[in-house]
Every structure is written in C-alpha cells, then in structure tokens.
Amino acid sequence: MERTDNDYLLLTPGPLTTSATVREAMLKDWCTWDEDYNTGVVQWIRQRLVTLATGQPGYSAVLIAGSGTASVEAVIGSAIPENGKLLVINNGAYGQRICQIADYLHIPVTELNRGECLPADPQAVADLLGRDKSITHVAMVHCETTTGMLNPLEAVCQVVKQSGRVMIVDAMSSFGGIPLDTGALGIDFLISSANKCIQGVPGFGFIIARQHRLEQCRRQARSLSLDLYDQWQCMEQHHGKWRFTSPTHTVRAFQQALKELEAEGGIAARHQRYTENQRRLVTGMQALGFRTLLPQQWHSPIITSFLSPSAPAYQFRAFYQQLKQRGFVIYPGKVSDADCFRIGNIGEIYPQDIDRLLMAVADSMDWQE
Ligand SMILES: *Cc1c(COP(=O)(O)O)cnc(C)c1O
Predict the structure, then answer these.
(1) Domains by residue range for the chain, with CATH
(2) Which of 51, 174, 182, 248 is a Cys-bridge partner for 142, taking CB atoms 3.0 to 4.6 Å apart?
(3) Does the CB atom of residue 147 touch ligand 1 within 6 A?
C-alpha cells in the first residue's frame, strides 16, 4: 500500500500535523457493538484519559462526537441546573463562545472580561463570587487559543473551590501538552478534544469529570445528543458503548495517538518539546523583526500571536501563500482589536521544523524589498 505524506506541516491549533502511524490506524473498519472496539479501544481510552488527567480517585471520562465545541456545549447544557447561573471568565474568542452557548440555552450568564490581552484576574473572580451569591458555576479557558494566553489556572481554581462553586475548564488546547492535575486543582469538569495536544484527528471531544458531578447532571440536559449524563451512563453500563454512531476511525486513531504520547515520555516530555518549539519560534521571529502580541511571561507553549508587519506592502494572504509553497501552513489572527497572525507549535512538530520554518519566513518577507 502506498503511503501518502503531507505536502505541508500544519502550524495550526488543530486539526494539526499528526504522525503517519496515527493516520494509518484509521485503515480498518470497526463494529461499534463488538468488544474489540468497546472494551479494547473505547474503555482503554477512557481509563487512560483519567490517568493522564489526575492521580486522584473519583473521576470518569466521557467521549462526545463532534468538534470540541460540542463537548463544551454538552457540559454547559448538562451541568447547570434550572436555577443555576454561570460566570464566564472571558478573555478571548473561546471564552466568548461559552457565553454564546449559555445564551443559546437560556442559561443565566455573567462575564468577567478584561479584554483579550490580559490574563484572568483571580482577585476579581473572588470579589465577584463574594458579591453575587446566585452564581453556581464558573467556566474558564485554560489556554486562550485566540492569543496564546495561558490563564492562571491554579489561582482561579483555588478561589472557585474556596467559594464552593463548580469549576468548568476548557482545556481544549492545553490538555496533553501542559502538565496539570485535574483533581488536585479541584476541577469538576475538564474539556478537551481529539485533535489538539494528544495529536489525534478531529471527530470527537472528551470530558474528564468528578463522578458525583456527573451524577448531578441527571435529567438536566437541554439537548438529547449532548446529554452528558446519558452518554456517561451508556459508556459505564455497556463497556464503552456510545449511544449513537461513534466516530470509530477517529477513536482508533486517538488510541494510537495516546500510545505515542506515552512513548514520547508522557505529558511532561511533550510539554518540553512544545516549550522548546515556542522558545525557538519567538527568538527566531524576533531576530527577523517581528513582535509578539503578548509579553513572553503570559505565553502558552501552544500557539503564539505575532503583530502583522506595519510595512504598507505586507499582506497576510501573500505571506501565507509563500509559506505554504515552502511547506508550512500558518493561521490568521483572531484578536478583534489588533492585526496579527498566529503560529502554532503543537502536533508532530519538532524544533528542527521550527528552524526550517524560520528560514522559510526569512525567504518570504517580500514586503521588505
Ligand atoms: C479548539 C478549541 C475549542 C473547540 O473548537 P472546535 O472548533 O469546536 O473544535 C474550544 N476551546 C478552545 C480553547 C480551543 O482551542
């Protein structure tokens, strides 16, 4: 069989560049009723996810078909009771999306928003939780992929835990790439998806949650297909069975991706690789005259926003095409009030790829001529 290789590396925050072996794992069909799939693949993944997420007991993993947003919507729509109220700590497009989900579902929502270029402020969260006793749940994005901002997870979780509220974390673009212990942090619901730092292909997301919080979701869901409790119960009681058609090939590829994460040395080793990628990227880009949107101390090792060059001849589209011809796909900016582009360094990307990228960037800077 001929192996197809990629024409270019995706320096994007997901879907991202996967290994050939992850892609090859999809070349087999699976029966969703058969134990080879349910026990051998799905249950294996659920157990492994819990182990990766926390050293503490009392957690369980639920898989939900769809893009990552479906898993966020399943949590928001299932975890918050009729008389509940959600606080969203919002500093980017993905925080904004959580507010939008709550609006669609007619869930009362309030937000703390200091703009896209500042990290979450734990003191402001504490103050608001003290003032507004009607807030029952708090949601925050760990790594805001909009800018690359890493929010202060530990400090915010501590405030939320002390106030006795339920903590929901969108760790979509950080889980698997940044070490964290869900249980030690006191997180009730942690959400991520297949096509980010675990380096699988798109098609489903997952939730790692405290079991007693999952129990409380019973009969609260505002959607059938996104009923977190029902999906969890089906997986628990039928050895990993999904209620509806499961993205079998994607799930099998994800199992392979988890094995490759382990072979790399686990989350700590992957974090080190991403951190080295990001450090080389920023140092190299700065040497070429680019500036980052955020100061380095707030950057995640996941993705970096660079300010667009101010030269009149600069055009993102042309720069993008030049880099693509040289084997690299970058990402447009997503910040509302600054002209940026973004470069991700998660996925099957190594420091030597970043070095090659920097040479390609140097060769693509036509606007300077
Ligand atoms: C990727 C991502 C999501 C989910 O996006 P989808 O397009 O639905 O997969 C949510 N939150 C963050 C922070 C993300 O990076």
Answers:
(1) 9-14+266-368 (3.90.1150.10), 20-263 (3.40.640.10)
(2) 174
(3) no
